[in-house]
Amino acid sequence: MKNEKATGGIISSSNKKSKFFKTLIGISRHWQLYILLLFPVIWTFLFRYYPMYGVQIAFRDFNPGLGILQSKWVGLKYFKMFLTSPQFKQLLINTFAISIYSILASAPIPIILAVALNECKIRPFAKTVQIVTYAPYFISTVILVAMVNQVLSPIGLLNNVIKLFGGEAVNLLAKPKLFRSIYVWSGIWQSAGYSSVIYLAALSGINKELYEAARIDGASTLQKIMYIDLPGIMPTFIILLILNSASVLNVGYEKIYLMQNPLNLSVSEVISTYVYKIGLTSAQYSYSSAIGLFNSVVSMVMMTLVNFIAKKTSETSLW
Q1: For the chain, where are the E strands, in sequence order?
Q2: CA 138 to CA 119: how far, in whole Å?
Q3: Fewer Cβ close by (within 10 Å): the C or N end of the chain?
Q4: CA distances (Å), 15 to each of 10, 28, 109, 116, 228, in order?
Q5: Are the C-beta atoms of residues 187 and 221 closer than 8 Å to each other?
Q6: Given this model, what pLDDT does residue 4 score?
Q7: Which of the listed CATH numbers 2.160.10.10, 1.10.3210.10, 1.10.3720.10, 3.30.390.50 matches domain 77-313?
Q8: What are phi and psi of 72, to 5 degrees?
Q9: Mean pLDDT, to the nearest integer, of 249-263?
Q10: How far is residue 20 CA from its own chain's centroid?
Q11: What's the whole-model pTM score?
């Protein structure tokens, strides 16, 4: 028995050594690919993992003069401060309202556009529509907000048309009840064409024999869309929905911050803009870090929950 154990140990150690040498040989043969892989690994470490060292600011009374490690440890003080602050409820409502509105409103538009382009038989027209809808994605946030202001301001294009027909000019950007719709639909206009490319790629991967079988069976265009196209892109839709659920509280502050004014602040102030103002404008670094960490934890929980539901109700999930 002892000899068998000893022999087994020698064999296992020799197998490990042989695997190790095979790995080294494989790396030496394809060293160019590993060098290319090295750059994104270094970038990920420097800009994704190394900054996690500073997360502890959220648990300390951070003093820039003392540094992170020398600052006093206060535990969950700033988390409790945020959760009990008068702004917490309104910030959470505004953030969830804008984010969920954006997800629900933007989800079907790229699918409809992709299916319509896929069914269009006039290819030059389809290519033109695709370019026209894709182009706004390359407009910067600052330019987009400037365009929105030019169209919706009291002296903008829309109000000039209203006055042309005898109406009165209205400052639409100053109306709180319209802010969310303006934010969401301007974003859909900007990103719908880009998002449709993903669904077009998914449609191109559907087995062509399914369309042939449907044509032979006499299926109409609507039936092909319902029973072939939509089921074919459903896994892609679920994956994108899971990824979007992770950003349910991470509403981009740039666009909202640029669209904010004192009249719509009651609905436009979200967690990301509040963190920016508290952290950089008011220099409350620990408090803003705690809010940001709370935001990240909630986003992770939301993504895990949506992934769990998707896994239980379908065969598609991230893990």
Answers
A1: 60-63, 67-73
A2: 26
A3: N
A4: 9, 20, 55, 57, 49
A5: no
A6: 47
A7: 1.10.3720.10
A8: -70, 135
A9: 84
A10: 40
A11: 0.81
